[in-house]
Amino acid sequence: MQSNEERLQKVIANAGVASRRKAEELIRTGHVEVNGTVVSQMGVKVTPQDEVLVDGVPLGKERKRYYLFYKPRGVITAVTDDKHRAVVTDYFDDVQEHLYPVGRLDYDTSGLLLMTNDGDFANMLMHPSFKVDKKYVAKVQGIPTRTQLMPLRDGLVVEGQKLAPARFHIMSVDKAKRTAIIALTIHQGVNHQVKKMFKTLGFPVLKLSRTEYGPLTLEGLVSGEHRALKPIEIQALKTVAEKG
Ligand code: URA
Q1: Domain membership flag for residue 117
Q2: Which residues line ligand 1 at a C-beta cut-off of 6 Å?
Q3: Per residue in 103-124, pLDDT tens?
Q4: Largest interatomic CA distance in the chain
Q5: 3-state class of 127 per DSSP?
Q6: How many distinct structural domains can be found in the chain?
Q7: Which residues, listed in sequence order, are joined to residue 161 by a DSSP beta bridge?
Q8: pTM, whole model, 2 decimals?
Q9: How many CB atoms within 10 Å of residue 52?
Q10: Could you list the active site residues?
Q11: How far apart are CA 240 and CA 132, in angstroms?
Q12: Same structural domain, 171 and 102
């Protein structure tokens, strides 16, 4: 007979309350009740008949929330950190729901990050078939010519992986400091992709910011601020995802 039991942390994660890791932490720190009893041990399994509460709220009852966040530099894209460094959720004290980031920006990267508690939405945006343009502005060491950057257009090979063609635009150069500001638009999400791309071409990134995500920009926000996505913006992202 097939069992419909599933691990508690998986059930919580699938309900869109938190990532699997965060769900484990919620359990360990006593935020989770099953049928009226706090469960803080790992390994408990539940069925759909069991009543699971996170912070007193039944699973599936959290309102779905969608935010656009201007992540500051020096903040970890995670919901918790063992070493008590600043994490992106620190900036959402005004939001009751358990948000988590859609994808990640590096610790030293600033810019546009989506935050949600909608697991399906997050998975959709993080799926490799989802090809939304993401625009980055990078300050690089050295002053590249257009010709030197042309491999970005053709699809660079980084660590043995051929990347999809990217678009770039040299915004400004500082001859005295030997640096350049370059806008780069990509749609993949390989780890540290932008830094790797520029490093491969011999122009290491000194500073990086993501300024656009599909139709979304940082307009109206300063670093550390967030705003709720409008229904039309959520729909626009879903439409891009459906087109694949
Ligand atoms: N590419 C990077 O190298 N870092 C980021 O944070 C995002 C994209």
Answers
A1: yes
A2: 105-106, 109, 192-195, 208
A3: 999 999 999 999 999 888 998 9
A4: 73
A5: coil
A6: 3
A7: 158
A8: 0.81
A9: 21
A10: 106
A11: 7
A12: no
